[in-house]
Design goal:
alpha+beta, 20% strand, GNAT superfamily N-acetyltransferase, GNAT_dom, acyltransferase activity, transferring groups other than amino-acyl groups, Acyl_CoA_acyltransferase
Length: 61
Amino acid sequence: MVEPAYRRRGLGRALLGSCQAWFDSRGVDVVFVSALDERAASFYLREGFRSCTGPWLYRSR
């Protein structure tokens, strides 16, 4: 989670991109995240994740 004062600067997208690159380099095919907050869920959906069950979202290669 990015501190509110630092939001809207691309930090979350950069962090997620680094995580995704790390997962890709290790052959991870599917990543699940839990987003209870609607703002967080919207962020992940914009970044290519898909809704799953309950608060869970996933992204596959």
